[in-house]
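Q: Here's a chain of 704 amino acids. Please give me its 3D structure as tokens.
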Amino acid sequence: MKQRLLLIAIAFLIVACSSSLKKASISSPNEAITVNFNLTEKGEPTYQVLFKNKVVVDTSFLGFEFTDAEPLKDNFEIKAFGTVSKNDPWEMPWGEQLKVENEYNELIVFLIEKDTERSVNVIFRVHDDGIGLRYEFQQQDGWTEALIKEEKTQFNLTQDYKTFWIPGDWDIYEHLYNTTKLSEIDALQFANHKDLAQTSIPNNAVNTPVTLVGDDGLHLSFHEAGLVDYSGMTLGVDTENLSFESILVGSDNTEYKVKRQIPFKTPWRTIQITDNAPDLIASNLIVNLNEPTKIHDMSWFTPMKYTGVWWEMHLGKSSWDYGMTQNMSTWTDTGGAHGKHGATTENVKRFIDFSAKNNIGGVLVEGWNTGWEHWIGFEDREGVFDFVTPYPDYDLDGVTRYAKEKGVEIIMHHETSSATETYTKQMDTAYALMQKYGMHSVKSGYVGKILPKGEYHHGQYMVNHYNNAAIKAAKYQVAVNAHEPIKATGLRRTYPNIISREGLRGQEFNAWSSDGGNPPEHLPIVAFTRMLAGPIDYTPGIFNIKFDEYKPNNQVNTTIAQQLALYVVIYSPIQMAADLVEHYEANPEPFQFIKDVGVDWQQTKVLNGEVGDYVTIARQERETGNWFVGGITNENARTLDITFDFLDENQKYEAIIYKDGENAHWDDNPLDIIIEKIDVNKGSDLSVKLAEGGGFAISIKKLD
């Protein structure tokens, strides 16, 4: 591992109480991005960001408000500053690529308040693809605990960007993206038109990642990295002055939003900066700003595709609950869903057989454990779910043994119904059960309002809950795929057993949402917003697009070719073949792509794209060296040109292309698909026509 450490300004140039020291600057290794730090005449800390000598973030203020102390905002002087340059490449144990470049320059500004001598450091880390800034509170006399009421980090922008955003909801990220000018954002009005139960959207706030596109082609995405023991950050929008300012997620139970013992560091506030859309997806800024791994052996986790008892319950074919209640050892019919229970021994074995036959490594089983009769809509949810006791019609021992014989891994499911104390008390027992049966992945869920009351999904209490659950899971060799989670902030680098998460409006909305489901533009936006934060468990692969026999007023709003493309475009180390077994068995030719496509990648190339319009991504599988390409479009048909310049020299390949048929359309004719084979080599060109809401997928293998 190559490291280059350079201390400039004479080992941090310690200058005690020097009123003449006002400014400092740092640039990215390629010198395209520059950060200027400055103290105003009032001693207010400010910064400015330039990209290719053009101001991107104009003079913006930094500071804090506290519940038990005066704010930190002015009357500062620079006690010292220093710069560090580092080149620290690393390897992903699983991911979009194997090798990750990690070169940056860092500026540290040591600030001290003149009268009180309270101190805080501001750290700017500048990569070629963006910047991170964070605050550091070092140990100091007379100040041992910070009760943060608000963090006052500003981002003053220089143009009225086209902005792709969701409301700054404190409880859910499951909103459709809105596309407006920055000056036209109205998060409260937008949220109130949705059929989701709202919690708290203070002021006019948006959640991150929020992505902006300028008239000059500049692309910015604002987010955070390394969110540990802190509150999630939303961004308040000043539409008149074209500015963002941090608004931390709070709690109804305390005046403060964050409570930390000093010393501590805040999460990084991040800005990805590129002059084109594909480079946003290619950026590794978020993971690079996290600490190196603390789990050095991940050999027990295998990236995989999986099937499972899930989609059929969203369609209403079966249910999570058994439809019975238990009194001691006797089960009594409650008139519920008895007879429709999905997680039966027989049904799960059917999925195991199908997975074993079709190169699919896992089976997810939702609704296997007791408690589902008393979760949604009940206030007294603590103590309801039992994470070790199966329903009477599910033979946990027998099913697990059967799966092992077939070479298939059972993926555990833990729905907490947001009863956090119940889950915390049972974690060790639940993870130990998984370890006993050789289960290495769990899908956890947090549907509903958080218990204890007054806490929110994205506040400090829940940030710690989600992170602590994953850290504890690692001790039992369990990888976590969290649904209804806190946002991804790159912690998968530090804790690579954090494998995936939801954190967006997923595929299930197509099955039952009253607004018609996710529109065709949804995923071409998601690829440049939510996916910048980390892996997404979107559950693609729905072949029965209309499913009129179950939900005549709902459907998936893509073509079948786009459903195939999502296995490449929307990244996760676990990818679900989400549809019912019978629909795959009835369509063996397109299903072949799902059987073949990889989930763990040697390298990734983003071939083209525009935010909200279209994107094409090529990924090379680690073990085989095979390439897979996926492209998707929004509601507009288009033709995309591909050049296969990512292939090896002097090598012939067979490409199997799965593309929209001549009459394909996401609504009128979503099942129209053409499958063809061609030979390609490095430099070959291909034009592919995508239908409205359509896509294409390509499997590329070497010819002998």
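Q: Can you summarize the key feature?
A: The domain at 6-288 is CATH 2.70.98.10 (Beta-galactosidase; Chain A, domain 5).
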